[in-house]
Amino acid sequence: MAITPVGEVHVFDPHPLNWLFITWNTMEEPVRTDHEGFLVMALAESATWRDERTLEVRVRDGARFQDGGRCTAQAVKQNFDEVQRWAAPHGFGYTRTGSGEGHW
């Protein structure tokens, strides 16, 4: 039996980065980096660089969205494509160049 979320979350936190802390604790990326900068699996069960521009990600079996819907490779790709349209998709001053390289 799925439970449907009801209401809103109200957060009182005067810290200017409170949105970031909420995001980190409610959203999961396919891969993350550890404190030393190495990739670690999160939503993905594996990730392999196919070439210098292609990261192949295998989503964990049984992964679901908060509404109970299946998390598929197509959903991950759709979300990735959407974030690339944003003016500033990466936090803390990180920007992407036209070549796809990131710069601080």
Decide which structural class fits the backbone. Answer: alpha+beta
Which regions have little confidence, pLDDT < 50, spanning 5+ residues? 93-104
- Terminus-to-terminus distance: 46 Å
Mean pLDDT: 76
Question: How many DSSP helices?
Answer: 2
Order of helices and strands: HEEEEHEE
Give a short account of the largest sheet.
2 strands, antiparallel
Considering DSSP H and I runs of 4 or more, what fraction of the residues is helical? Answer: 10-25%
Outline type: globular
How are the strands of the largest sheet arranged? 1-2
Task: Tell me what portion of residues adopts beta-strand conformation.
Answer: 15-25%
Q: What is the strand tally?
A: 6
Cα-based radius of gyration, to the nearest Å: 16 Å
Layout of helices and strands:
Blueprint: H1 18-26, E1 31-33, E2 39-41, E3 44-51, E4 54-59, H2 73-85, E5 95-96, E6 102-103
Antiparallel strand pairs: 1-2, 3-4, 5-6
What does this structure look like?
The chain is built from two helices and six strands. With 104 residues, it is α+β, with helices and mostly antiparallel strands.
